[in-house]
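Dear support,

Our group has been running a series of protein-ligand predictions, and this particular one with NAI is the one our PI (initials K.S.) wants archived with full inputs and outputs. We had some confusion internally about which version of the output was final, so please treat the block below as the authoritative record. The input we submitted was:
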Amino acid sequence: MHEREADELGLRYLYRRLDLDVMGQPATAVGDVLAAARLVGYDGLNVTHPCKQLVLPHLDELSPDAEALGAVNTVVFRDGRAVGHNTDWSGFARAFDRGLPDAALDRVVLLGAGGAGAAVAHALLTLGTRRLTIVDVDAARAGELAGALGDRFGADRATGAAPATLDATLREADGLVHATPTGMAAHPGLPVDAALLRPDLWVADIVYRPLETELVRTARRLGCRVLDGGGMAVFQAVDAFRLFTGVEPDAERMLAHFTELVAGPGPDVRIS
Ligand SMILES: NC(=O)C1=CN([C@@H]2O[C@H](COP(=O)(O)OP(=O)(O)OC[C@H]3O[C@@H](n4cnc5c(N)ncnc54)[C@H](O)[C@@H]3O)[C@@H](O)[C@H]2O)C=CC1
Ligand SMILES: O=C1C[C@@](O)(C(=O)O)C[C@@H](O)[C@@H]1O
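Confirmed final output from the archive:
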């Protein structure tokens, strides 16, 4: 996606996968990878699960958003310094704005309080969600995330809740954002009971492989306004591309290319 957009713009750009599993390294080796990338002249890196927090001590500076979120997915090397940014939250915010404009944001339920859920929660509150209820099988994690958001956005804006309360909370909600692995090819299924989906509830899924998850399919069939996970995946890349190059990419072109990519076979991961 990055390379194809750069080709379109006439930029020379190499985007390489450095996979710790393939290298036989633990997640804690992220600092070594960062140092190696800097040494050999990379302009920056995207960082993914489970290294978005582990990378923090290896950075010289954080953008205010990355600092607030305590997670980095984009590192830019500039003037000898490694600067951490977070484009997951801005990517979700832009995808949401584009895909579900005018969606009611009075009461929103977020299912999943992991790394992606934290970025999505930051985006939802930044976009104006009045009351966000965060539900996770790990109720302590949901509570911690709600507490951290409360410190930044105001104590009454975010609450952690246990899965047993999901039915009641969803009945009163304007929208649902799904941020657990359910629905991915390796974890098929529906994360909430279909009986809880009604036409006046908007539904956003962040799972993007496949784009058409069981949740997206079911919610659409039941008449909900629906957003799939492709927009977040693309717009985080759009924001990272701009940070790496200083050039504004064509977001709609990247979205079209991404849709083509996810429809195809998975990547062939090899290091030689
Ligand atoms: N569209 C995009 O750009 C992105 C999409 N993703 C998607 O988001 C998913 C989550 O990613 P991360 O937050 O990094 O994973 P994570 O493992 O950090 O967090 C997942 C959270 O979901 C919770 N959970 C799992 N099953 C649950 C259930 N049935 N009910 C309630 N909570 C449950 C877990 O306890 C955990 O807190 C990924 O599997 C991926 O599909 C992730 C990153 C970017
Ligand atoms: O988590 C993700 C996914 C990603 O690693 C990818 O594979 O596209 C790119 C990261 O910037 C983003 O935060």
